Amino acid sequence: MSRFDHQAAEARWQAVWAERQSFAARDDSPRPKAYVLEMFPYPSGRIHMGHVRNYTFGDVMARTRRAQGFEVLHPMGWDSFGMPAENAAMEKGVHPGNWTRANIAAMRAQLQRLGFALDWSRELSTCEPDYYGQEQALFLDMLAAGLVYRRESAVNWDPVDMTVLANEQVIDGRGWRSGALVERRKLNQWFLRITDFAEDLLDGLKGLDQWPEKVRLMQENWIGKSTGLKFTFQVQASPPLAGGENGEFGSFDVFTTRPDTLFGASFAAIAADHPMAQQCAAGNPALAAFIAQCQAGGTAAADIETQEKLGFDTGLSVVHPLDPALRLPVFVANFVLMDYGTGALFGCPAHDQRDLDFARKYQLPVIRVVAAPGEETAPIHDEAYTGPGRMVNSRWLDGMTADEARAAVIARAEAEGWGQGVTQYRLRDWGVSRQRYWGTPIPIIHCEICGAVPVPKKQLPVTLPEDVTFYVPGNPLDRHPTWKHVDCPQCGKPARRETDTLDTFTNSSWYFIRFASAPDDRPFDPAVAAQWLPVGQYIGGVEHAILHLLYARFWTRALQRIGKLDVAEPFAGLFTQGMVTHETYSRPQAEGLPPIWFAPDEVERSASGATLKADGAPVEVGRVIKMSKSKKNVIDPDAILGRYGADAVRWFMLSDSPPERDLAWSEAGIDGAWRFVQRVWRLANDNAAPAAGDADSRLDRQVHRTIAAVTGDIDRLQFNKAVARLYELVSALERAAPSPSRRAGVIAVVQLVAPMTPHLAEEAWALLGQPGLVCDAAWPVADPALLVDDEVTIAVQVNGKLKGDFSAAKGSDRATLETAALALPGVQRTLDGKPARKIIVVPDRLVNIVA
Ligand code: ANZ
Ligand code: ZN
Q1: pLDDT at 394 over 90
Q2: How far apart are CA 701 and CA 712, in angstroms?
């Protein structure tokens, strides 16, 4: 018998599947539908092991569902707009489109080598006009429905990349790519009204019971619903007043989630961008300078949380709403955000850490108003008390619980007319304008007379010009000599195209709909799309737990609200997989310099350590971390595929670790996977011909138990468990004598491994003389009669003392049990040659020997 020839098998079966269009999803199929989707890749150039793992999981699901009788939609495409293509253009002088399309061709070939059961006829690439043109149509639909608007807003400006950054792209105050210090700028930006859906998006999470709890929680926190009190502070100017006459300043509103702590207030604070701050600054250069300093940093909330709390006393004071005799000073403070709540707050240092830090810095009173039992007079030191308790130092609120006090203050504010209970969300509207070339052009024309005019739908797509250069930073669309000069669609006068493009997250917000239905003349057919949606199983990295998933949920709901598609939630089931990791190899450099990293294939690894192949000298073996180019700890799928074959790689991706955890790549692991492939191949060879002889009921039962268990494991995406059970069954089959049972077991194994190692399975299926393709064969179903547990454990006692146990078939007769009990070593030792005087047998349970 020859070894399993992975190269020949891969070529043969991939050609057969392609020729038969085995994995094309038919819209009009009478079978129930299943939609399995992995987050589509960015075409960076090459597939990495993380992709291989992700798509292998999806492929196992897709192939299993197909075998189980579903019409399966399992598509693949390319999230192909974005900065890296422009960076490549800048660095290498290639056009972003050429760079991207070449990468797609290379990566498509890699995916095809892995034998994924994908419907390639539905492939899409977001950078092509047939996709982004339809996205422009959807943008215009949302615009018409009032879900898109334009306003001036402060943005994070990266002065090196010359673009606006999302808050998430600002890390420690610097641009995530350029590393440049981020500035704050005001620009006219397009926004999608996601905040309109805040409550819906939050509420919808409750129904997503096939999502990881942690992802639901992350989304919930991101939406950040809080209920509280909005109330008005009356301003008093206390002399000496910096600018303005007494009374000129009127009032301002604050939002609080802790109205219960109002008697603990010791100051009020407003954002640097607050109109009142601007007003005060008019006659106060020092304040103006402070405001400018606040505005220099980015707008990321996380940065604002961590930076030092700074304030500037405006000299104004406000009247305490619960006691007109009390006054609070008004500060401009750097930790108050203009676009949250009302851009103003009252500070209660005893019960809010930021306020406490601030109060210590500016010597403001710290008054405890909530206390746990026994803590009523305990002073507050460096830590604010945020726990539950009852009210103290709060006059008519004293003795109430904090919750009762919260309700009481809201009720009073509403009765007296100075405030109102409100709900607030942390979620902001989504700014989608990007000053980049490689994205969906925003289909708007700016006319001096008519304003912002939508491009008429029949003029879509607004395509990107090809003749652009990247020698200077900034937006090539803006610099292009002719592209932006067009006539106004409304009045016909010369006008200017919008030169911003859409955030690439818009591209991934609806691609799963376009996979389900992709007519030429519309974004999708709602009836066809609704047949497939929601995606039954979505699989991807947890790094997309917030933004991508929230944006996709928002687009789906927005399309539902405007009557385009009757689906509320895009992804019924979500699975977030772990990363593929590898140890790192390095040598330290002189102080202040980063270590030099070495790739696994540059290194000779031994049990005690590692040496560099080039010079034989040792290298440091570092932590096992996510494979990354910067640490060089990457294993290239292509090299591995050539050596071990697609099936071994796929099998290894499923083995060893639970799929939600990280998988450490190891030579031993891939070797083991390769050996498993060979073992199955040998079993198929050894059982190729029908066998004579008796059935082996023990083996039959193990086979059927494995069928049932593996089916359940795959359903729950517990692939590593399925793998472990298949190892056991294969070992049992290897030990078994030839019989019809053994051959039937081998056929079952081939079916069960088919979603995981499909080339091997097809080859073995043919060898075993089975009809058709294994990918078309119905999934094996366990015989319930063979699943009942028919083994019992019999306890054995001598003179009432437990001496051991053994397992026996259920219903075994007296004589069998007696013989087995007397043969136990523990029993023989105790009896020491003496005969038993009497043997009591409780069937299926116990043998007691009286000696
Ligand atoms: C008084 C107070 C007392 C507060 C206390 C908290 C604790 P969440 O829960 O995240 O919604 N706040 C209000 N507007 C703000 C803004 N524009 N920028 C920064 N902080 C702002 O946060 C609500 C709380 O954050 C509000 O409740 C307010 O401080 C502050 F013991 O009011 B609190
Ligand atoms: Zn016009």
Answers
A1: yes
A2: 17
